[in-house]
Amino acid sequence: MNRIIHEKQDLTYLSWSKIRNFSGTAGSFLKAYSMLGGKKTYYKLSNFDKVKGVIGHECVNEIIIDRLLDILGIPHLHYQLIHADVMIDGKRQEVYLCASADFKEKGESKLALDAYWEAEHEEGESALDFCIRNGWEDYICQMLVVDFLILNRDRHGANIEVLRNSRKKTVSLAPLFDHGLSLLFNCADDAAAAAYDVMADRRVNNYIGSSSTWENLKLIPEGKRPQLNALKESDKRILLNGLDGILSQTMQDKIWEMIWKRWCAYEDFCHSR
4-101 — its CATH code? Predict the structure, then answer.
């Protein structure tokens, strides 16, 4: 699959709906979907302001993190970054948006993890212990590492989904998805990016664990650390390939600095325990 489509597409037929903005910034997030050839595709825009248009780069983050998880060997939902014209409130807009396939199989339904925990947990059982009891510990450990590396600010209870398959009689967690509110998503320009402390332990919105991605790493038992492929300095080219003209060089370099320094810190953490 071509992860970035630079040639502008006509997606003006999509109908956009607003979802809540958890980022604490101005604007809103818009989502849409299409059914073509029996396949459902979901689309989303970066943070959007009615006056200024697209003011964020969350969709670009999805592509970078998609590539990062490929390198590390972590299962996840794949995204495309598409250059397109869309119609919003009757006005034609030129944007880069994200597209992803429906990850549900035939016979599957999905439910937010927080809602599933509310219905199925035992008395006094935390969300983490609930996931461990259901056999999802390896998944959660991988997720905690990923969220530290990218400083994911928004792993709330609906950004982890439970898949229930009535035909197979199985219950599992959906592939990791929705990483847009991470990296430098809250840097509006190059000046903000250049000044950004990529190792700062900023407060995050995590359903499992605490509001610190660093403290959440310590929830991983020593014998349960994910066996990941090592990130290399040469991987910068892979992560950022094709983003010239979409994301500034300053922003690209700072994003790589964040990922690389946090990876090195994670390696140090593993070796210190």
Answer: 3.30.200
